[in-house]
Design goal:
disordered C terminus; two-stranded antiparallel sheet; single chain; about 750 residues; mainly alpha; disordered N terminus
Length: about 750
């Protein structure tokens, strides 16, 4: 309960022996410590726990030991130093096994105040593990920690710094940050203490950023980056990364010092052997220095900029691939961090082109981690318009990554193909994605289908090509295609007479091939119902194909099929066989429980015998030209950092992002790229009602079943609008157009 209140999750009891749990958590060191420290009682207790055959037996032994320790702590007889340490160690062992320890905290705090090193060590370790900042008596140790920080014993200082970093909250930061900063800055402090002090300041800063002000700390930070000791320098660089990640303003003075550190490690100047990893001088410091520069804008100092360019050029020009995996990891960490910094600083096109060429080699490497990083960084480089041509040279290799066993690599390849698509290669990429769609994982099919729909709309060379692509998309991945996609096809086909016969023939072929997906059936019902008469001699086949799928369709799809039957009935009255079959269907559906389908069937049956039927069942009027709601589904991607303006370019430095890679005429009136989507203008309260009143599939609106009754006003949008796929979508609202009774324009 105490662990839950503190926000620290207690270790859950896991299956397996105690020895297995110790080994899994690295706690076999308790046995070594018990043997080396002469704690025979602790050693025996651990052995007894390990010999338990069940968790019930272990729990009983733990409860017995906790009761014994509680009794010892409450007894009037004073405990010896050995006993205090032994019982605290037992409590720690019980805690790390996953059991709650609800007492012994005060005894641990008391050991911190001891003058003996062994007792103080046990007290600090126990306090770091068992205590947290929300406990009231944690304040009791602040004064003791302050004294240990001011002492000349480096062991006491290191233990206090470790405990402060582990327990430290806002109160610790306010009370002890001054002493910790003094230890960090003081030249008389031992380097081992300064390393811990830098990391302790970082921990306190994260809990309370007010302890550091750039007016006073920026110059001190610069001095710390001039340290010769690599341990202090590495810890100070970690502190700098943590500070500038919050706010880099005021710390520009440290940029030359960071570049100097980069030059030192890149050339291997004064790097001790202890900090050399497989022949690479301190790769951890190298990566941290590169990462620190990410938080600063374009470097204005020409001398520093030139030196940094030279370092980065040397890094990407000497990027060997070694057989040793560990050395490879270090080299690639430096390389990819350097490439990321080049993109952040938006260096000249020659360097970035060299980066793309290098990344293209990595995309073909068998190592999945390297291939993933190559695709990821190439995707970021695609934000630079000048790099698009170079990236396209690797299009074939990127397409092969779609078949990689690793799904994360497949996702990255998909993202990169989406970014690099333009008017020149759109047909090839869309065709490749369509063929990949049939074998793609279900986890990415929805994203893949949406990207195919958007790419085909943004870079359509002709409306016919666009319609063919979307019909193929719906046929292959209907479950993952949103309704907005086929709504858009309906809008385009209805508005372009040249497409109507082609689209009708296309969907008819899909039905002949056995396609029966709901989305394809909805689209086919609408198009064949409206334009099926353009296919000479196909009326009977259309009817039978739709009839065979009527029984298994959902209610909204059945509504569209019934509407298609109504139009076939009115337009082909000479075919008595079909007319009788359709009337029989209307009669059967006129008595089903579904009110929407029942009403449609009854009204269609009555309407078919009236003289107004031909007018009502005429072709749908053209939809007003609106921006596709499909594009609005794709919001600007926020996970990619925008690139700063390159040095020396004559552009507005207030611009937040680079222009899109390609500019092409949009056949479908989509003038904005996905990354720069026009914000959606919210509808006024009256507009949704207007959209609902102009339902393009409500074919009987305004007509009465009897001739004597006057024409009724257009009904409001029904709540049970199962067969109305267009209701409420403003981009498909029918405007003031002639033809089609019941298509009343909005007031």
């Amino acid at each position: 309960a105490r662990a839950k209140q503190s926000g620290r999750a207690a270790y859950p009891f896991r299956s397996g022996t105690t020895r297995e749990r110790e080994r899994g958590r690295g706690r076999g060191s308790f046995v070594k410590m018990a043997s080396a420290g002469g704690y025979r009682g602790l050693h025996n207790f651990i052995n007894e726990i390990r010999q338990c055959n069940s968790k019930e037996a272990e729990r009983a032994r733990i409860d017995k030991e906790l009761a014994n320790i509680r009794t010892k702590f409450k007894s009037d007889r004073g405990l010896s130093s050995y006993e205090k340490k032994k019982y605290i160690w037992k409590l720690l062992y019980i805690y790390v096994l996953g059991y709650d320890v609800e007492f012994g905290h005060m005894e641990a705090v008391a050991l911190i105040s001891s003058t003996k090193f062994s007792e103080k060590q046990v007290g600090y370790i126990a306090a770091s593990v068992l205590l947290h900042e929300n406990l009231e008596f944690v304040r009791l140790v602040i004064n003791t920690m302050q004294k240990d920080l001011l002492s000349r014993d480096e062991n006491y200082q290191c233990m206090a710094l470790t405990a402060i970093a582990n327990m430290g909250g806002r109160e610790f930061a306010e009370a002890l940050s001054g002493e910790v900063l003094k230890l960090l800055i003081s030249s008389s402090t031992r380097n081992v203490v300064r390393k811990k002090a830098a990391l302790c300041v970082l921990r306190l800063f994260r809990r309370n950023p007010d302890i550091i002000s750039h007016e006073t700390f920026a110059l001190k930070m610069g001095n710390l980056l001039q340290e010769r000791d690599l341990g202090v320098l590495l810890s100070s660089m970690s502190l700098l990364c943590g500070v500038v990640a919050v706010d880099s303003r005021g710390y520009e003075v440290v940029i030359p010092k960071v570049v100097a550190v980069l030059e030192r490690v890149a050339k291997g100047i004064d790097i001790p052997q202890d900090y050399t990893y497989y022949g690479i001088p301190s790769p951890w410091l190298h990566v941290k220095a590169l990462r620190a520069l990410h938080y600063f804008p374009v470097i204005e100092n020409d001398g520093v900029w030139t030196k940094l360019q030279e370092i980065l050029r040397r890094t990407i020009s000497s990027a060997p691939i070694d057989k040793n995996t560990n050395k490879n990891n270090a080299l690639h960490a430096i390389l990819f961090e350097s490439i990321s910094l080049m993109m952040h600083l938006n260096m000249d096109s020659e360097v970035l082109t060299q980066c793309v060429t290098l990344l293209g080699k990595f995309v073909s490497i068998k190592e999945p981690n390297i291939r993933y990083l190559g695709l990821e960084n190439m995707s970021r480089l695609s934000l630079v318009p000048e790099m698009m041509t170079t990236i396209k040279a690797h299009q074939e290799q990127i397409q092969l990554s779609l078949n990689d066993p690793d799904i994360s690599i497949r996702r990255r390849a998909l993202d990169l193909l989406y970014r690099m698509c333009d008017a020149q290669n759109s047909h090839e990429i869309v065709d490749q994605l369509l063929s990949y769609l049939t074998t793609a994982d279900f986890a990415i099919r929805e994203e893949l289908a949406l990207k195919i729909a958007i790419l085909s709309e943004r870079f359509a060379s002709s409306l016919q090509w666009y319609v063919d692509v979307i019909i193929s998309l719906i046929d292959k991945a209907g479950d993952h295609v949103s309704d907005q996609v086929w709504y858009r096809v309906v809008q385009i086909v209805t508005n372009n007479e040249a497409l109507q016969s082609h689209a009708a023939a296309n969907v008819l072929r899909k039905l002949q091939d056995g396609s029966s997906h709901e989305t394809m059936l909805k689209l086919s019902s609408y198009i064949l119902g409206e334009f099926g008469q353009l296919l000479q001699g196909s009326t009977r086949e259309i009817f039978h194909l739709l009839k065979d799928r009527l029984g298994s369709a959902t209610a909204p799809t059945k509504g569209l099929i019934l509407s298609a039957f109504a139009k076939i009935l009115v337009r082909s009255p000479e075919d008595t066989e079909i007319a009788d079959s359709i009337k029989e269907i209307f009669k059967r559906y006129g008595s089903i429980p579904d009110a929407e389908l029942q009403q449609r069937s009854v009204e269609y049956a009555v309407l078919s015998g009236k003289k107004e039927a031909t007018e009502v069942m005429s072709l749908m009027p053209k939809f007003p030209e609106r921006e596709s709601s499909l594009v609005k589904l794709m919001s600007p991607e926020s996970n990619e950092a925008s690139l700063p303006i390159a040095r020396g370019r004559n552009v507005d430095r207030d611009a937040e992002a680079l222009p899109s890679a390609t500019q092409s005429n949009d056949l479908l009136d989509l003038d904005d790229a996905i990354e720069n989507t026009v914000p959606v203008v919210p509808l006024t309260p009256e507009e949704p009602a207007k959209a609902g009143q102009s339902d393009p599939l409500d074919l009987l609106a305004g007509l009465s079943v009897t001739e004597e009754a006057p024409a009724a006003a257009p009904p409001a949008a029904s709540g049970n609008n199962a067969a109305d796929p267009f209701g409420g979508y403003s981009d498909l609202t029918v405007g003031n157009s002639s033809g089609g009774a019941g298509l009343t324009p909005p007031p």
